[in-house]
Amino acid sequence: EADDPRRAGSVDGVRGVYLGELVWVLVAELMPQVVKSAPRACSVTVAVATGLAIKDATVRLGAKTVEVAHQVGHSIKEALHLSDIPQPGRTAVDGSRVHLRLLRGRQVTWRGRGVNCHAFVELLSSTGVVLAVARSKPQMWTKVPRWCQSFELGPATSMSDVVRITLYHQKSRQVVGITRRSKEMPERYIGEVTVPLRALLIRDAVIGEDGDIVGWFELTDARGLRKDSPCSGEVK
Question: CA-based angle 179:185:187, to the nearest 5?
């Protein structure tokens, strides 16, 4: 690659060798030596790596299948259930509404393991009255849930109102409907994020040019439901 014009910065103006190219060169040089010196160990390593890859792919496929199968029934039940929840703060004329897009989470665990988690989203008044609620679809067997869902909550009654996003874990049989229990059980509480509406009016690094807050928010145990077990994870 000595004569490759990219090394002189013809593409991006940066001179030198890309790290990825260097890594692949090292792999190409070292792999034949490793295979010759320890073929048995190399074969075992390849077999183990293949087995782990197949296991991970099977888990992801199974989780995705359950999520897709559950989503249709979840959407119908949530539409019926949430329409029956009283809205004490709602007035005859809708006021300002909160638009929330829940993207994903990272390092979200329950007792150190992956979770079957969903988000329970609430718009609360300054006195704790529930003004509006919504519930996300569940994410199965993961520490990095991906929702990519949008919610509209309201109407808001004042700038003292608060948006609270709470994550809960469920057992797999509960997610698929084999057992009938509340989706928001205190003992399955993972953590929460609380954002006052007045905080949305400030200028901050996590607020984009279009006014969207796009940062990561750490899960906390504001209500003390985890007791001696600390929260882990963030949501975006």
Answer: 110
Percentages helix, strand, coil for the chain (3-state, rounded to 5) are: 35, 25, 40
| 127 burial level (CB within 10 Å; 0-12, 13-18, 19+) | exposed
Against a cut of 0.90, is the pTM above it?
A: no
Q: Give percent of the chain with pLDDT exceeding 70.
A: 63
Residue given tokens 């309201």 in the structure block: 154
DSSP of 130-164, one letter per residue?
A: EEEEEEPPPEEEESS-EEEEEEEE-----TT-EEE
Structure tokens at 88: 């004490």
* Cα(12)–Cα(1) distance, integer angstroms: 17
Query: pLDDT (tens digit, 9 = 90+) per residue, 67-109?
Result: 555 554 555 455 444 444 444 444 433 468 888 899 999 999 9
Cis check for the bond before 138: say yes or no (omega within 30 of 0): no
DSSP conformation letters of 79-132: HHHHHTS--TT--SS----EEEEEEEEES--BTTB-EEEEEEEEEE-TT--EEE
What DSSP state is assigned to residue 213?
B
- Residues of the chain falling short of pLDDT 50: 72, 76, 79-94
